[in-house]
């Protein structure tokens, strides 16, 4: 079952990559009005999803990145969620709160007109708050994919990820689209899966 899931994710990512590259070539001739991809920005991600023991949750994420050279940038984020459902753990039934944080380094290089390949590696920490105790896990999160502003006022991104926590590795994906309301302000939607946790929501981003 896990093999089939990974195969489906891989096929979906491959198809998305091809479609995004094809789109970038179509719109490459009309790049005079297009903005640049910004690697210095701050954003807020209001989201819901499905995670621990298949419980639904809601929460928010603050993200930031800073480009310190032509190809490299720092990135970090902090998330907090709470389950909408009551989870039974041993003799206790309760709602569970979680916190996550990531800190890392990113690299990008152009592959087409206004389209970059992006690779990031981050230290990851997660805290699950249970009654009378909390559980902390640490690991690594690697993201790779494409970001494109080949279409005027739009930024599109598609990618995959590999996360390792609790001595386990999981493959995930991410899809997002941003529409620029102003030259530095965009509103977007994002769908992603990280360590078998599925997340979807709305992002407000300000480029610096």
Please describe what this structure looks like.
The protein is mostly beta strands. The chain has one helix spanning 2-27, and strands at residues 41-50, 56-67, 72-83, 87-89, 92-94, 97-112, 115-130, 133-148, 154-165, 168-182, 185-194, 197-207. The strands form two sheets. A ten-stranded antiparallel beta barrel has the order 1-2-3-6-7-8-9-10-11-12. It has a two-stranded antiparallel ribbon with strand order 4-5. Residues 1-9 and 22-33 have low confidence and may be disordered.
List its salient traits.
208 residues; mainly beta; 10-stranded antiparallel barrel; 12 strands; 65% strand; elongated
DSSP summary, beta strand count:
12
Task: State the helix count.
Answer: 1
Unreliable segments of 5+ consecutive residues: 1-9, 22-33
**Secondary-structure element order, as H and E?**
HEEEEEEEEEEEE
> What does the radius of gyration come to?
18 Å
Question: What proportion of the residues form beta strands (DSSP E)?
Answer: over 45%
Q: How would you briefly describe this protein structure?
A:
With 208 residues, the protein is mostly beta strands. It is built from one helix and twelve strands, in the order αββββββββββββ. The longest helix is centred in the N-terminal third of the chain and has 26 residues.
Write the layout of secondary structure elements.
Blueprint: H1 2-27, E1 41-50, E2 56-67, E3 72-83, E4 87-89, E5 92-94, E6 97-112, E7 115-130, E8 133-148, E9 154-165, E10 168-182, E11 185-194, E12 197-207
Antiparallel strand pairs: 1-2, 1-12, 2-3, 3-6, 4-5, 6-7, 7-8, 8-9, 9-10, 10-11, 11-12
């Amino acid at each position: 079952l896990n093999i089939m899931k990974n195969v489906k994710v891989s096929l979906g990512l491959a198809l998305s990559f091809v479609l995004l590259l094809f789109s970038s070539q179509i719109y490459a001739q009309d790049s005079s009005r297009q903005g640049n991809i910004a690697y210095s920005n701050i954003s807020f991600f209001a989201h819901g999803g499905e995670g621990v023991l298949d419980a639904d949750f809601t929460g928010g994420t603050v993200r930031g990145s800073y480009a310190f050279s032509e190809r490299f940038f720092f990135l970090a984020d902090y998330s907090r969620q709470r389950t909408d459902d009551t989870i039974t753990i041993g003799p206790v039934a309760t709602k569970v709160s979680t916190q996550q944080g990531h800190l890392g380094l990113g690299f990008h290089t152009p592959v087409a007109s206004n389209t970059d390949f992006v690779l990031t590696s981050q230290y990851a920490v997660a805290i699950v708050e249970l009654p009378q105790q909390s559980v902390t896990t640490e690991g690594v999160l690697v993201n790779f994919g494409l970001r494109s502003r080949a279409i005027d006022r739009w930024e599109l991104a598609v990618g995959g990820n590999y996360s390792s926590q609790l001595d386990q590795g999981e493959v995930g994906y991410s899809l997002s689209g941003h529409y620029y309301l102003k030259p530095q302000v965009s509103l977007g939607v994002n769908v992603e899966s990280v360590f078998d946790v599925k997340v979807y929501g709305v992002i407000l981003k300000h480029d610096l």
